Amino acid sequence: MSVLTPDPRPDAAAATATEPAAATTASPVAASFSAPAGTPPAIQVESVRRVYKAKSGPVTALDGVDLQVEAGELFGLLGPNGAGKTTLIKILTTLLAPTSGTAKVFGFDVEHETKRIRRIMNMVAGGEQSGYGILTVREQLWMFSQFYGMSSSDGWNRSDALLERVGLGDKRMQRVSTLSTGERQKMNLARGLMNDPWILFLDEPTLGLDVEAARSLRELMVEWRAAVPGRTILLTTHYMAEADELCDRIAIVHKGRILAIGTSAELKRRVQRESIFRVELDRLDGGVAALAHVPGVVKASTGVMSDSQADRQAVAINLVLEDDAALGAVVGALGSRGSRILGLQKSEPTLEDVFVELVGRGFEDEDQPDEHVDDPEAAT
Amino acid sequence: MSAVGRPAAGAAQGTAGGPPAKLDLIGRAGAGPRQDSAWSARQILVTNLRAIRGRAYPRWRGLFREKSWVAFEILLPFLSTSAFVFVYRSLHAPEAYVGFVVLGGVMSAFWINVIWMMANQLWWEKSQGNLELYFAAPMNFMSILFGMALGGMFMSSSRALSILIIATVVFGVSFSISSWLLVILVFAATLAALYGVGMVLASLFLVWGREAWHLGQMLTEPVYFVAGLNFPVARLGLIGALSVGLIPLATGLDAMRQLVFAGAPFPIGTPAPEIELVILVAMAVGSTALARWMLAVMERRARRDGRLTIRWQ
User: Fold this and answer.
1) Cβ atoms within 10 A of the Cβ of A288, count?
2) Do A67 and A258 touch, CB atoms closer than 8 A?
3) Which of A12, A150, A161 shows the shortest C-beta gap to B25?
4) Pairwise CA distance, residues A81 & A78, whole Å
5) Are residues B48 and B159 located together in one domain of the fold?
6) Most buried in the list A240, B24, B280, B298, measured by CB within 10 Å?
7) HSE of A327, CA atoms in CB hemisphere, 13 A
8) Does residue B312 sit within a domain?
9) Cβ contact (<8 Å) for B21 and A161?
10) How far is B266 from chain A (nearest CA, A)?
11) Which range of residues forms the domain containing residue B70?
12) How many whole angstroms from its chain centre is CA B76?
């Protein structure tokens, strides 16, 4: 039994059974995450706008956002700095009111049912410096456990167990002020799990962490979510690989709007309407022109060879096919010309390619300081 | 079964080799998010009480971990108190005046705490990122303020007691207490009123943001003066009377001086301790209610404007 997995509870099954029958309107996405029957969407955002008043004039941080995240999903908001990701998280965590539109968390309205939401959620932000340096790591977590109403002994036990799980067991008696950035972020994640929330909001949780620490945190997120059906994570990140690796679905956010939503594969398919293969051959009589007339081949070109391929006198070609099915004809054509296939690799587009396709520019070009949406003069 | 009658909601694995520790999450039946977010009145009450304990904890721990307070909050204030004692003695003032100064030094510990660790605290919490975590937690925010106040009272009481003992021993102050019960009631009411004002100031300082530091300084020395920290407040005439009616430090100090130096020749013109006790209770109730109202306003404003969750603003 892991600290991330609650004990089987006799009352839990009974209580679940009394819930309404599984919603017949549940989307296929919800079913795939095994959310408890009758659970409303974890997040439901409709036409949400958030406008800040800055010295330079009104700034629209969110511009008519619509979003639905099913219970049990690990959902990613991917976008450059200043895209509106943090604003959306602040609205969903009841810290900020939308200028217009509605947002609900497990069916509770973020404006009028804040207490209900706060009892079942938690949040962790990258680079978070919360707490008190004078406390030990263990005491820090215990203090936060009290804010969620845990008994003192349960708070201590839970703190110890979570610290063991995040790999800070040996640091638990150390003062918070002595922790490294990575250790501190692990402690923050443990804090976020302290109340065993149903929904966890993670705002750039691996920001500034080294590779090992970031990997460790990602593993923990995945494990925690998978331990109980219905646990949901909303993750904001501007790390493409992180979103690609972790998220069931991803929304690409840009300038306060959601440009696309889907699984990583679905998003990539948006930009890849053809199949691209790289084929390595021992020889190719007649050159790439010999493949141009094979049915289904859109384009064939000579590929760049590595030194080792050149040493082996291998030939590399790049093929653009109408779809994967055309590959059979290509293999047949190559065989009839006496070519032996040494290697075959399908080229996948990245989320960066998707972003470029949608926006016209890459992330680095788009990164904007967050200040424009967090302006101190903000007042609407 | 937990203290609030909930079944154990989950299990936390104990430390390596140990037995699994039961985990009790208030309000967590484990049935689903909607059921788990429906709390009874008792659960809400217990959560708020535990939140008060949780927020008081860092101050209680700080008392034992930050040894520098001995120098900064006992020895240095003691020097200031000593200076007034020497002035009064050189002027051959009645010996009761020495006691007045010592009592003023004792109560100054609480006012310093109210200004720098209550009024300024939320501003600091915001810059650390704690404030948004407090807002996002399920307890009432007043529990955070009560926790800060409780921890602050405990912290300051230790300092006040230290100053009282050292000054009494060094300067040979003798007390003549007419009514212990009244002294205790006045002291408790003074602290309640002082920290009630601290809670109001905490909300105000948070809204005023960058000016909080200057406001803190502005409220230190001037308040010492109008509260009659080192002399009987009645000497200030109308200002003294206003202070007794408006500033808990002045009211409580004057009442306690009357009670612990019974029969001492202090200037007349201030109300009897019983009346001052009533004033203090009214101040405590009024300031707590005002703090609660201001917090509600502040949270509405925070959510509307987004100002209060922005760390550097």
Assistant:
1) 17
2) yes
3) A150
4) 10
5) yes
6) B280
7) 14
8) no
9) yes
10) 44
11) 39-305
12) 21
- CB-nearest partner of A15 from B31, B43, B309: B31
Whole-Å CA distances, A76 to A202, A227, A241, A253, B286: 9, 19, 11, 10, 47
Gap between the Cα atoms of A88 and A96, Å rounded: 9
Task: State how far residue A248 is from chain B, nearest Cα, in angstroms.
Answer: 20
**Rounded CA separation B227/B259 (Å):** 17
Q: For residue A70, which amino acid is it?
A: E
Q: Do A11 and B29 touch (CB under 8 A)?
A: yes
Question: What phi, psi does A133 have (nearest 5°)?
Answer: -60, -20
Q: Are residues B218 and B271 in the same domain?
A: yes
Rounded to whole angstroms, how far apart are CA atoms A106 and A321?
44
> Is A60 at the interface with chain B, CB within 8 A?
no
Cα–Cα distance, A161 to A141 (Å, whole number) = 11
Give yes or no: residues B140 and B267 share one domain: yes
Token pair 């999903």 is found at A73
Tracing tokens 């998978």 back to the chain, one arrives at A226
Residue of A6, A107, A118 lying closest to B34 (CB–CB): A107
Shared domain check, B17 and B132: no
Burial class (CB in 10 A: 0-12, 13-18, 19+), B234: middle
Give yes or no: residues B15 and B81 share one domain. Answer: no
Cβ–Cβ < 8 Å for A202, A221: yes
Residue B310 lies in a domain: no
Are B7 and B98 found together in one domain?
no
ipTM of this predicted structure: 0.82
- Backbone angles phi and psi of B36, in degrees to 5: -70, -20
Where does residue A47 rank: exposed (0-12), middle (13-18), buried (19+ CB within 10 A)?
middle
Contact B287, B199 (CB under 8 A): yes
- Among partner residues B30, B61, B306, which is closest to A9 by beta-carbon distance? B30
Contacts B134 to A, Cβ<8 Å: 147
Task: Please state the domain count of chain B.
Answer: 2
Give, rounded to a whole angstrom, the gap between the first and last alpha carbons of chain B.
45
In a domain, B311, yes or no: no
| Separation CA A358–CA A373 (nearest Å) | 22
Mind listing the pLDDT tens digit of every residue in chain A (380 residues)?
A: 456 665 443 333 333 333 333 333 334 444 455 566 677 999 999 999 999 887 788 889 999 999 999 999 999 999 888 889 999 999 999 999 999 999 999 999 999 999 999 999 999 988 778 888 899 999 999 999 999 999 999 999 999 999 998 889 999 999 998 998 889 999 999 999 999 999 999 998 888 788 888 888 899 889 888 888 889 999 998 888 889 889 999 999 999 999 999 999 888 887 777 788 888 888 888 888 888 889 988 888 887 766 666 666 788 888 888 888 888 999 998 988 888 998 888 887 888 878 877 876 666 655 554 433 443 333 33
Residue A248 CB partners (closer than 8 Å, separation 6+): A29, A32, A33, A73, A74, A75, A263
Query: Which chain A residues are within 8 Å of B16, Cβ to Cβ?
Result: 164, 169
> Same structural domain for residues B228 and B253?
yes
Is the domain of B162 the same as that of B90?
yes
